[in-house]
Structures are given as structure tokens and as C-alpha cells.
Amino acid sequence: MNLLTTRIDLDAIAYNTRLLKNRVGAAKLMAVVKADGYNHGMDRVAPVMAANGADAFGVATIAEALAMRATGITTPILCWIWSPEQDWAAAVEAGIDLAVISPRHAQVLVDAPPTSRTIRVSVKVDTALHRSGVDEQDWDAVFTLLRDCGPIEVTGLFTHLSCADEPDNPETDHQAETFRRAIDRARALGLEVPENHLCNSPATLTRPDLHMDMVRPGVALYGLEPIPGLDHGLRPAMTWAGAITVVKPIRKGEGTSYGLTWCAETDGFVAVVPAGYADGVPRAAQDHLRVHINGHDYPQVGRVCMDQFVIFLGDNPHGVAAGDEAIIFGGPGMSATELADALGTINYEIICRPTGRTVRHYTGEGK
């Protein structure tokens, strides 16, 4: 028995992939599996996504891209965070598409010695996020440079939306207008750019007019709603749970955990969950976490420690005992979104938190 587990429902991954694929019609679906599949295990979720409609995959780093290829994935993979000082040629040899995110990145690829494979690139243009991406004043130079280099194939352009999780924010339309201008300019300079994409999860779900040639969802594939207050019928795939290690009595007025920052208002019982900030439970979760055990919820109390936290059972009317499963989030417990709201963050961060001694366990067949 593992003391701390994330259960990943592969059938939920399959369902979410199909749901998104059905929504986008003729557009291709690029499934984003960076950060080890949003902490769900890229090697297990990517094949499920491929079997249920994913046409391509997106990752952040070259290491992630190469790890995907090593699992046997043969579909296109786009890597968008890399440095010219890295062995990017190894990615090219593995059939990885590279993002051109600055004039420097373009120049390095153009100046490269011959490779046995065509260098496939997608140009990321900055449309006002002001993060990585080619600025508008550099579009002509980069497009022309790549056009005139025979070993390089430009598959398309892409960009990243800043406010798509706010459906009424006009910035999405402004960015889309800039992106269309970039596509028009690339084609005017002789690039075909056949596959262009800007839709992240929220835009994939709410802006069919922006689906273009491809969409690029991430968190929605894992079943989390990307737009506060809406429900698109996604199925969360992750449940994080620990096995209760200790149940013991506490008297009125007695405290628990470091600093004795919480004291019992009545006689009762406390229980220990073997998860702490070394495992991804933030110390700031104190008094915000509600744990689910055998159909009932219990509050977390006292300081979150490195390896464990404490919950209060009251007089323990439901007989919680050592070995019982305590759900930290997911399933019948707090959702990742509810926990995120309680902690003042976003559900993206919550599903990336289970680390440390947490062991993944997979359920379902991905069908």
C-alpha cells in the first residue's frame, strides 16, 4: 500500500479528448502534454489521447519531446521552449518540430550545418502577451530568412492568448486580429503556413470562430474547467489521496502541529494524513483544506508540515481509522478548482502540486 497516491482515470482522459475533438470539427487537435502531462504522466496519457483524436502534441522542452518519442509516439510533436545552446539537432533528428520564438532562434537554425532531416519549424508570433515570440517589427526579417533556407519547412504560425479565460475580454479579438495579420504577412512574403493555431483550452471551448487550422488545448484534456463559473462537461482525471496513519484523542484546549496554532474547541479526535509541503500540499493551505473520508468531509487544522497534516474528526461519529483513505482533492472530495479557489490560485497549479512521495496509479483503459 502506498501512503500517498494520485489516481489517474484514463477513461476520463479519453472522454475529454473525444469531447474536444468533436467540438473543433475539421480543425486538428494538438494535445498539450508538457510538464509530464500536467502531472498525469505523459507516457500514459499521450497514447490515450492519440487513440481518441489527438492529431499532434505540444510540449515545452526538448527533453519532454524526446521522452515522448521514446514512448513510441509517431505523431507530430512541437517543442516551444528551447535554447540555441542545447542539442536541438537531436530533436530535429527525432522528427521534432521546433518553435521559432525570436530572430536569434531563426538565425541559429538557418546557419546550422546540414542535417539528415528537414528542419520543421512553427513560428511563434507575439500578439501582445509580451512573453516569448517574434515581435511584429521582426516578422518580415524572420519570415524572409526562413523562406530562403531550403532545409527549413515552416509548418505554420502560432501564438498564445492572454485573456481567453475571460470570454468578454476584448483582448482576445485584438490578438486574433494581430495573428491574422501575421498570417497574411507570412503568405505575402512567400510562406504557405498551412497550420496556424492560437486557441488554448478556454478559446477551444468558447471561440469556434478562432479554431483556424488547429487548436491547442491543455488543461481541458485533463478534465478541468478553464473558465471560472462555466461547465463544459469535462471529467477530471486526477484524484489525490493519502492513507490515514494515526487517529488519536485530543482534549478541549489542546493544540496540534507546530506552533499550536489551532486548539480544539471540544474533546474529540484528530487524524494524520501523510502529505506535506514536500509532497505538494502548500503550507498556506492551513485552514483552507477539507478532506473527504468514507463519504464525509473533515477540516484540516494546524500547521501543514513537511511530511504530514492533521484533520479534526470531532467525536469521530463515523469511525475513521488508521488505513482509511483521505481524499485531498478529486473524486467525491474537494475539486481541484474548489481547492484552487480556497488557496487563491488556479486549478492548473493544483494538479501540478502532487509530487514528493506521491505514487501514480492508473485506472480505466483509455476507451
Q: How would you sum up this structure, described in words?
A:
- The chain is an alpha/beta fold.
- Helix content is 27%, strand content 23%.
- The strands form four sheets. The protein has a seven-stranded parallel beta sheet. Strands 10-13-16-15-14 form a five-stranded antiparallel beta sheet, with no helix packed on it.
- Strand 3 (56-59), helix 4 (62-70) and strand 4 form a beta-alpha-beta unit.
- The radius of gyration is 24 Å and the shape is elongated.
Read across the widest sheet, the strand sequence of neighbours is 7-6-5-4-3-2-8
Average residue-wise pLDDT: 97
What characterizes the major β-sheet?
Answer: 7 strands, parallel
The H-and-E topology, N to C, reads as: EHEHHEHEHEHEHEHHEEEEEEEEEEHHE
| Helix share, percent | 25-40%
Looking at the structure, what is the overall shape?
A: elongated
Structural class: alpha/beta
Pfam families: Ala_racemase_C (PF00842), Ala_racemase_N (PF01168)
Domain Alanine racemase C-terminal: 237-363
InterPro entries: Ala_racemase, Ala_racemase/Decarboxylase_C, Ala_racemase_C, Ala_racemase_N, PLP-binding_barrel
Keywords: Isomerase, Pyridoxal phosphate
